[in-house]
């Protein structure tokens, strides 16, 4: 899996060149707007509600001595919790709403990498792409929160917190990579097959998502360029795997995708 993580990261090299060569920037206008607006909204919520959440957390401290200090710390903890939850929500909101705009990008990359082929593609409409994007990301959001909530609590425990923090990062990376890879898988696999494919290639998802998560911490620029280049990187690597493993159905044949289960 470690090799696949490296491959997922290496796929980012050359993404800007590929975007310019294929003229893909125009497809990113609306997704970038969605990303920026969602990011600003998350930060505003963290700023205004950190005090309220901090006051709620401060009630845990029932003693008078040190109450002011704990209240101050609680405000920062409240802000941190909102930011962590906001980051989780941000990723899935942006990826879900961007699905209809990212699928054409992935298709153009596939055509560029594979040329004129006889590959069979599933035909889906704007609404179907949006519906699948929402379904995939709702599923990933639920699972991510299921794992992250106990890990966030553990992250405040000395020593154990270091391991918990690393796991939080890897879990976020995995589900981000999953969403980015699905823009390509949407044309070839149904929902269940896509889940199975990512499980078999989770290293690629983690590598792709790891760069995504790290780049989000770049002020302003992170909200603008992270989604475009991560989608291009995920699409390029996913298409290569599909082609290498002959998982793309051929027109005019009864070839199935059962290999994905093998």
From TrEMBL:
Location in the cell: Membrane
Top-rank taxon: Bacteria
Transmembrane segments annotated in the record for this chain: 27-49, 69-90, 145-175, 210-234
One Gene Ontology term, aspect cellular component: plasma membrane
Bilayer topology term: Multi-pass membrane protein
Gene Ontology molecular-function annotations: high-affinity sulfate:proton symporter activity
Keyword Repressor found: no
Organism, scientific name: Aquimarina aggregata
Cell membrane recorded as keyword: yes
UniProt GO BP: cysteine biosynthetic process; sulfate assimilation
Name used for this protein in its record: Coproporphyrinogen III oxidase
Signal peptide limits: none
Keywords in alphabetical order: Amino-acid biosynthesis, Cell inner membrane, Cell membrane, Membrane, Sulfate transport, Transmembrane, Transmembrane helix, Transport
Pfam families, per database record: EI24
């Amino acid at each position: 899996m470690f090799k696949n993580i490296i491959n997922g990261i290496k796929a980012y090299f050359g993404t800007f060149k590929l975007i310019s060569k294929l003229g893909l920037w125009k497809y990113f206008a609306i997704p970038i707007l969605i990303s920026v607006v969602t990011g600003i909204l998350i930060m505003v919520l963290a700023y205004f509600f950190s005090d309220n959440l901090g006051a709620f957390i401060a009630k845990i401290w029932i003693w008078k001595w040190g109450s002011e200090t704990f209240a101050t710390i609680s405000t920062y903890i409240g802000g941190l919790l909102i930011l962590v939850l906001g980051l989780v929500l941000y990723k899935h909101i942006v990826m879900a709403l961007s699905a209809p705009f990212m699928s054409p990008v992935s298709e153009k990359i596939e055509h560029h990498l594979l040329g004129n082929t006889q590959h069979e593609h599933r035909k889906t409409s704007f609404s179907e792409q949006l519906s699948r994007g929402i379904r995939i990301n709702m599923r990933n959001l639920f699972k991510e929160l299921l794992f992250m909530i106990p890990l966030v609590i553990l992250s405040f425990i000395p020593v154990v917190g270091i391991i918990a923090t690393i796991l939080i990062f890897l879990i976020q990376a995995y589900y981000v990579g999953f969403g980015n890879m699905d823009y390509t898988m949407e044309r070839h696999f149904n929902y269940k097959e896509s889940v199975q494919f990512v499980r078999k290639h989770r290293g690629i998802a983690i590598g792709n998502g790891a760069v995504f998560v790290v780049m989000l911490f770049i002020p302003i620029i992170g909200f603008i360029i992270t989604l475009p280049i991560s989608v291009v990187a995920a699409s390029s690597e996913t298409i290569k795997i599909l082609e290498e493993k002959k998982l793309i159905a051929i027109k005019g044949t009864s070839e199935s995708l059962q290999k994905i289960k093998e």
